[in-house]
Specification:
alpha/beta, Urease, subunit C, domain 1, four-stranded antiparallel beta sheet, 9 helices, three-stranded parallel beta sheet, TIM Barrel, about 10% strand, about 45% helix, 7 strands
Length: about 220
């Protein structure tokens, strides 16, 4: 399909490709040559049978893949879940490939730091926002996620990156700033969470009722 889109002149740097699990070598090259970006949704790709999340393959080609959720109706909508899913999926893929032929597992596998980059700076790059966010750099807007590292699920912290990628979850997020504005502080969201819950539950009830009426 990528080749066909190329023939129509539809490939370009303004396109992000998702679920690229079965791209051929030619398709990968077409995406790279056109300046396209890649986003990998590990949970959905494994859960829905799309194939192994191609994070390492994309990185080998210099495509700087990001992480994405895809469908929050089926999987959690947080980056901690996606980071761990991506890490585990690639290790599982490598071990599965080497098990039957009884070959040694290669040393070149995804690292925790590469996973964190996919969730942060490479996510900003994919979204076209790298000049504004994705890293703590002078001149960028103040987007900060502060993670509390004394909880039992991350203690004792030895490698901070590995602790964030492999151990932390949303409960460890203490403070969040977006463009310098506090959105979460001391572990509590600075928003009307109760109203949001009531609204989404009302929406659910409306949809279920409408569906039930159509079935009658």
């Amino acid at each position: 399909m990528i080749k066909q889109l190329n023939e129509y002149g539809l490939l370009g740097p303004d396109t992000t490709y998702i679920h690229c699990c079965h791209f051929s070598d030619e398709e990968w090259q077409l995406v790279k040559d056109s300046g396209g970006t890649i986003s990998v949704a590990p949970q959905i790709e494994m859960q829905m049978g799309h194939g192994w999340p191609p994070l390492l393959r994309a990185r080998h080609l210099g495509l700087r893949p990001s992480l994405s959720i895809d469908a929050v109706t089926s999987v959690p909508g947080d980056m901690f879940t996606e980071m761990r899913a991506a890490f585990a999926a690639d290790r599982a893929r490598v071990h599965a490939e080497k098990y039957e032929p009884n070959e040694r597992v290669p040393k070149e596998v995804l690292t925790a730091r590469e996973i964190l980059e996919a969730a942060t700076i490479d996510g900003a790059y994919t979204a076209g926002l790298e000049d504004r966010t994705g890293s703590l750099t002078p001149g960028k807007q103040a987007d900060i996620v502060m993670i509390e590292g004394k909880s039992l699920n991350v203690a004792p912290v030895i490698d901070p990156v590995a602790a964030v990628v492999l151990c932390a979850d949303v409960s460890n997020v203490d403070t969040v700033f977006v463009a310098g504005q506090a959105k979460k502080r001391d572990g509590k969201l600075l928003a009307d969470v109760d109203k949001a819950r009531v609204d989404v539950e009302a929406s659910r009830d409306f949809l279920l009722e409408a569906t039930a009426e159509k079935r009658q």
